[in-house]
Write the structure tokens for this entry.
Amino acid sequence: MPDDFPHNSVHQLLQSDRVTPATKKVLEERLQVKERITPHFFSDEDFHLLEAVCDRLFPQEERDAKIPLAIMFERSLTEDAGKGWRYDELPPMETTIVSGLRGIQEEATLLFHQSFIEINNINKEDILRAVQNEKGQAVVWQKLNSPLFFEELLAALTELYYSHPIAKDEIGEMAFADARGWEHIGLYPPEDHTTTPPHARD
Amino acid sequence: MPATEPNNFTGRAPGWRGGEVPMQVFSPGETVDAVVIGTGAGGAPLMASLAKAGLKVVALEAGRHWQPPKDFATDEPAQSPLFWTDERLSAGRDPVHFGNNNSGIGVGGSTLHFTAYVPRAQPDDFELYRHFGAGRDWPISYDDLEPYYEAAEQFIGVSGPAHYPWGGVHRKPYPLPPLPINGAGQLMQRGCERLGIRTSAAPNAALSQPYYQEGVGQRNACTNRGFCQAGCNNGAKGSMDVTYIPYALHHGAEVRANSFVTGFEKNEHGRISGVIYHRNGVEERQKCRYVFLCAGAVESPRLLLINDMANSSGQVGKNFMAHTGMQLWGQFDEAVYPHKGIPGAIISEDMHRPGDADFAGGYLLQSIGVMPVTYASQTARARGFWGEQMRQYMRGYNHAAGINILGDCLPYDRNFLELSDEKDTRGLPKPRIHFSFGENEQRLTAHAEKWMRKVWEEAGAKDIWTYNRSAHIIGTCRMGTDARDAVVNSNCQSFDLPNLYICDNSVFPSALSANPALTIMALSLRTAALFLEQKNK
């Protein structure tokens, strides 16, 4: 059978012979992550703040079963060995994230006299954009480089998001289904609708 | 003393395909001929040569043995154990990204995650100062390395064109025909053709056909899964674990995994007499006559600085370089599926020495495949996309293709490695690496960006964007002719400690405008050959 994509979801592919046992194990485990790791790394307050930030950086309003980014991120801080480097300007990752979240909270208090969780989505996004562009007012940013904090948090969440099978379905990514290798590896013509999954098109 | 016959080997090592293979085991109290620190492109070829010559060799590798067909998932985050995760502190205006960008761990070192791209350097790469009055010349030439380039290409099985249009003499053609060309490669061919830029299939250390590997048996051909940077799971990529390391074991070398070197013993004459390391958390020592330090351009100088040795020149840790490596991306009407195929299918070296250059050195152009999480992460860092903008952009992943450069970088006093005051999980000082591109690199990158943009526009790209990055780690124990400003001589022997050799990316006096892996392997083979010659005198 040629390796042109069947119009199957990631879930169906995972049950097929197109995924190696090693890959299947990893992706199925990732699908099962739904609970916070214990002991928790974040305080409950910081965790809810993180969830609110994740909901803006990767809004998933159309989904009943969302990719649990905050849970995955907390796990990665606790379980993973780290990425092997950090910007010298930043403190260790755990401190960067906790301080940065506190900075976001401080922005909401300064601008709206409310918790970040309570303000509306537009205001939340304005705050995040300000932090990203070094336009925040919070005292925390005097000691923490806010664009670098934002970049580190965003990169980490982005990697977690696109590692999740639900996100792979979203973008039509099938790189993991390589058990039989790939035969057609060159360009597909733009008008060829038979081989490109419709959900992968714009 | 000849190596013990395979059926007399006293120990076992994990077999690449599973199970175990026989391995000679030496006693720590026995004085072996050589300890090799690091089993990547610098350590593995020389370990193989020394073992074949009958020397008693022990290799110490910080990481573990892998059994890729069983262990390696086609999933980027799951493969993070291939990367060096002891933290480095990255400073300067262009802080280097370490970890999965350039630093591997495991039996096979960084070749476990390299992209298999193996161009040779060109003859004039070794003479940058002579031609431009900038940077440093090597004390050896392309001709000195050529026999070893050839030996490495033939041994690991490089797939490449019958005639390679650029560079120095290849006395023998590549042993295997080129790999199939993926979408990014086809787009680069299209764009370059319209601009009159020559392209060629690139030389890649991945088998386009099954290949017999001495010490291993039959290796399989590449399946085009495109996850070279996350570890090849079928042995087609010519990483050290399926080439030089099994050959070395077959000839009586021992590889001790999970062994992190922390120091050295010296005798009353000041010569190194042993290596101190921690294996699975327990301190061990191995007596030896010679040490080959092949731990890469961060860990080799770091070890020397921690132990305050081999540094009368003051150059250990200095001259840190990283290649200019800007990537240019675009969206295409055609579906590309950019994760498929050997990532670096097509090359052009027409910009090796461009006539209109206002900079020293030059660069090569490379078409690039990309894995999905890596692509998303780069987009986040370089474009700052989030929310619906990121989700919308990433829905175009299957229509994305990239091209990048690999170009020169000069050494600067402000770019160096030092020990910080912060301790890592091993209780050792974290290295801090200062790096900023200079004016030379900025001009080179500007020249390259202009050309890459033209190529991609001609190929039909929309929404073009660039990701300015550096690639590889180079230069921190440089080779030279003068003990006052170099760490090793042209044989890679330390000026200060005659029984210490350093053989990895750290000894390069200049960056070269080619990816370093093949040059490191060639240097490793040459270092072993000259060492054996000296020893037998």
Summary: Chain A has eight helices and one strand. The longest helix of chain A spans residues 93-112. Chain A touches chain B through 59 residues (CB under 8 Å). Helices of chain A lie at 10-14, 21-32, 44-57, 69-79, 93-112, 121-132, 146-163, 165-171.
